[in-house]
Amino acid sequence: MRIAIFGAGAVGCYLGGRLAAAGGSVLLIGRARIGTEIAQGLTVTDYRGGRAQVGALPFAEGPEAAHEADLVLVCVKSAASAEAAQALRPCLAPDAVVVSFQNGLRNAQTLAEGLGRPVLPGMVGFNVAAQGEGRFHQGTQGDLHVARDPRLPAALFARAGLALRQHGDMPAVLRAKLMLNLNNAINALSGVPLQAELSQRDYRRCLALAQEEWLTLTARAGQPLARLTPLPASMLPRVLRLPDSLFRRLAGGMLRIDPLARSSMADDLALGRQTEIDWINGEVVRLAESLGRDAPVNRRLMGLIRAGRRIWPASALLTELSAARRPA
User: Beta strand pairing status for 71-74 and 2-6?
Assistant: First the structure.
């Protein structure tokens, strides 16, 4: 199977490197600077000590390179989904399988509308950091999730060390992932790596506030969440509020993160790039509005991210978000 990865950033290059190391035929499509960086090959590593190296992979800047692909993995940021669909539409083979491996809830739908063909919704359940010089590092645990389809090369993904979990109800999976991704904004505002942030109770309490809004709204809308963690989603806010010592004892798995890993939103905010705040916390606000309600915590997080980079100590951020919940 010929695989094209459209959007060869950190996630795209990591997936491509893993699949190529397992014997897959992989083509990367991305910006020229990425092509230059990986011209001598890729090195992909993970927080468990795993490591694989591959020589230079076929690389292209234009979507027309995807015309022979049997499987196309779209890994662009959410803001670029509509543009990606328009670029790819005239270039894909009629029977090519397209998968959206992006954050948020609506990217597969946006791609499908632009491409005029079905797109399988997917989700990357781990963090990837670009470390420069063709090195890409998986900093957190997690699997790949995708809508069930017999055409997917599950055996190749397994050989690559990328567990491909297929589901009949991907919207529930995406809603559960979005709940976890509500931490992206908090991590960006904290100015510290994920492990250090989640080790501080007040930052976790901030996340609990944001997650509780999502849980309340999805329950009211009759939209269930899949179980992606050892604990059911409904219990996560309670666990996040535990004192640090008890949290480490009962939920230590949440801290098994590379000490340098940060959310992609933290990287985008630091570099002045457009973030995915509208496709993550914005989904909470939109659901609230559709139900005639409000989501003040997530609305405030959106405002803080849009205001630009500022480091918020844990206690200050908790005070800010707690105040947002109180009526004016």
Answer: parallel
Percent of the chain with pLDDT over 70: 100
pLDDT given at position 151: 96
Cβ atoms within 10 A of the Cβ of 80, count? 17
Quick check: 270 pLDDT over 80? yes
User: What's the confidence (pLDDT) of residue 326?
Assistant: 77
Angle between helices 183-190 and 296-306 (to 10 degrees): 40
pLDDT tens-place string over residues 53-69: 999 999 999 999 999 99
Asked if 73 and 92 touch (Cβ cutoff 8 Å), the reply is no
pLDDT above 90 (res 255)? no
User: Cβ distance 182 to 103 under 8 Å?
Assistant: no
Strands (E), the chain: 2-6, 25-29, 42-46, 51-54, 59-60, 71-74, 97-101, 120-124, 128-132, 135-138, 144-147, 164-167
Q: What is the pLDDT of residue 69?
A: 97
Residue 328 has a pLDDT of: 58
pLDDT per residue over 187-244, tens digit each? 999 999 999 999 999 999 999 999 999 999 999 999 999 999 888 999 999 999 999 9
Which of 144, 167, 190 terminates a domain? The answer is 167
The Cα 319–Cα 328 span in angstroms is 15
- 137 and 218 assigned to the same domain: no
Please indicate, yes or no, whether residues 193 and 119 belong to a single structural domain of this protein: no
Order of strands across the sheet with 71-74?
Answer: 59-60, 25-29, 2-6, 71-74, 97-101, 120-124, 144-147, 164-167
One-letter-per-residue 3-state SS of 69-115:
CCEEEECCCHHHHHHHHHHHHHHCCCCCEEEEECCCCCHHHHHHHHH
Calpha distance 302→312 (Å, rounded): 14
Of the candidates 129, 261, 137, 140, the residue with the CA atom closest to the CA atom of residue 193: 261
Q: Are residues 188 and 320 in the same domain?
A: yes
* Structural domain count, the chain: 2
